[in-house]
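Practice problem 4.
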């Protein structure tokens, strides 16, 4: 069993991502041509261990009946300058590598990411592309997710607004 570690400062290479650290909660709306539209509640947690990446954990539940909908876990990396990478695993058999740009301005951040690689198990749904836009302003994160899947072109799938929970 690992012993609790004392708090450490974020690695200097990701210090500008520190405003993301913590737990965020909110609600969103999903739609896609092959499914019924739905509302959901979401929790995201960004953490760090002093290395040059943030840890990322996400969970969603259906707004009406509370059933679990989706989860993602992975890492947010900043390889230099205004470049950003998001590496994720999904329990649906999909892995996702997205790369893009990071804009830091005042108390805000803006990330624009597009998939450079989608891996999938033989039983996973055919997802061919993903794109994410995330904007942090003060204590609010707003994001959208675009997806190409099951023969449909890349298009809007999710949008949510989350507030700092701590």
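Answer key:
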């Amino acid at each position: 069993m690992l012993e609790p570690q004392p708090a450490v400062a974020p690695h200097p290479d990701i210090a500008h991502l520190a405003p993301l650290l913590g737990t965020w909660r909110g609600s969103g709306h999903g739609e896609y041509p092959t499914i019924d539209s739905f509302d959901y509640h979401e929790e995201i947690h960004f953490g760090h261990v002093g290395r040059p990446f943030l840890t990322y954990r996400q969970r969603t539940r259906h707004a009406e009946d509370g059933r679990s909908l989706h989860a993602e876990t992975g890492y947010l990396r900043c390889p230099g300058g205004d470049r950003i990478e998001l590496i994720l695993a999904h329990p649906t058999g999909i892995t996702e590598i997205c790369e893009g740009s990071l804009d830091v301005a005042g108390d805000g951040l803006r990330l624009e990411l597009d998939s450079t690689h989608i891996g999938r198990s033989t039983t996973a749904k055919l997802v061919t592309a993903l794109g994410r836009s995330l904007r942090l302003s003060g204590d609010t994160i707003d994001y959208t997710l675009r997806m190409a899947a099951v023969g449909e072109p890349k298009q809007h799938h999710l949008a949510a607004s989350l507030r700092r929970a701590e």
